[in-house]
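Before drawing any conclusions, I looked closely at one protein's amino acid sequence and its backbone structure tokens, quoted below without any editing.
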Amino acid sequence: MRSFFVLFLSFLFLSGKAQDTVYARKIIKELASAKYFGRGYVKNGGEKAAKFLEKELKKNKTLPLFADGYFQNYKFSVNTFPSEMELKLNGKVLVPGKDFIVAPESNAMDGIFILNKKDSITWMNENYGNPLLLVKKKKLTYSVATHTAPYCKVEILESSLPPGNLVAEVGIENKFKMDFPNKNVCAYVNGIVNNDSMIVFTAHYDHLGGMGNKTFFPGANDNASGVSFVLNLAKYYASHPPKYKTLFLFFSGEEAGLLGSDHFVKNKTVDLSKIKFLINLDLLATGDDGIMLVNGAIHEKEFALMQKINSEKGLVKEIKKRGKAKNSDHYWFTEAGVPAFFLYTLGGVTFYHDVFDKAETIPLTDYCDVFKLLLEFINQF
């Protein structure tokens, strides 16, 4: 009977652990799908993602941060490529995202051009008023631009570049969108002891959107994984009430320059002095080599607590630390004096800002152990 009871408890534990990743994979698969087209600025991808998060937060029994709901609306301008995206080099058709990408600040370009080699990696036509530039790259990574430039720059994967002189047939359309509407999605659960002080978890839900009307950047690791993690935390704390009021913030505009978190902080959406600690979560899909804590070198006491918990419970392989860095949404909070960590996982798959960052590539190697580590950190903190 005792052996059966131990096995039963083990089954419950393993089922709970599996359920965390089951829910995570469901969220990641959804947000990285074509339906959301890279959670960007064409095909209504970002708006659809915001509404999906609202639905999940309601289902997980969290409360909206604002009197009129979960959304904090704001705007910024962005350059997009909503339709035509064609390139031939010496008659060879190249595939967007796999063979080439367009620099996000690029202007439109249409026609046939003879390109002259300018240096070991650059080709250019002679139309200096609105030139076409081709740049050879070993890896293609995309980004977002909030401005346009007086050129069209195309990055070509080295292995896709034909030999000899280059003749380019180009059909690229851009559309600069002024004051494009965006949303931060914000929720909370009440604490059982103190609702004046706050613990905050954040993740950005936006990604790079699309390039043309067929190619999109799924953003499974970056950052559907972090979104799934914060949703899992919301789900947990809604049914296990925390000591302090706990916020779950999902920012848009991160890939465009940390714009959603900047808006949240600058507008004093909450009293920042009441935040006891903030943890920003991004790139949570791996963990083979442990985790990194940005600001770990600044908040030494909290870093030591994280190390102590991990040493006692044997959860992640290693916890590394960095100093201050403007590389995710924690940054503006740090600048405003809020104690914060930015946590991301190390090792494993290396797909980043490309078309290969898909849900099926995500191993979630140490997802559950990182979850346990954070729960215990907040509990002891």
